[in-house]
Amino acid sequence: MVATCLHLAGFVCSFMGWIGVVVATATNDWVVTCGYTITTCRKMDELGSKGLWADCVMATGLYHCKPLVDILILPGYVQACRALMIAASVLGLPAIFLLITVLPCIRMGHEPGAAKYRRSQLGGILIILLAMCGVVATIWFPVCAHRETTIMSFGYSLYTGWIGSALCLFGGCVIVCCSGDAQTFGENRFYYASGSSSPTHAKSAHV
Q1: Of the four listed, 37, 52, 88, 89, which is most buried by Cβ atoms within 10 Å?
Q2: Which range of residues forms the domain containing residue 24?
Q3: Please, what's the largest Cα pairwise distance for the chain?
């Protein structure tokens, strides 16, 4: 029962973390740039934000973004972080699918617990890889962006990426390390005994 609860907790954390990584990948408010104070930059219309896909200018009543479409002239760190975040988002699809198929409430015929255990472990490993891609990208981007321009603060996209990656790392580790073993995975269930005891008396069985 404890292993099942831990597996469910790991799945929920992984799913929420993957959603956070996808949101961070799709949005552009990674870092807020300004050469002065925020108030001064707003008055001078020099407050900007940088992301994977666009450079934006934020002013009173105005939010204008310039798409970063010229791949050949983009800095290397932007292209690398794009690739890492896209890889993380894509890895989440098979990982979440595998973890859904091994949930305690889902049974695929008379499949043995060992097969579900292998799928669970593979899904957990993919989640951990997803998390590592997100961690590297969300740390690498602000460090390199700071070398190009003055960073005033981190944007919500970066925080979303950090939180999502942390949740995926935690969830993946729980799934890989705390979900039981191949012999007992998914095999614990309840049946109603007949005969000697009350017909409504539930017993646990290991099949």
Answers
A1: 88
A2: 1-29+73-183
A3: 85
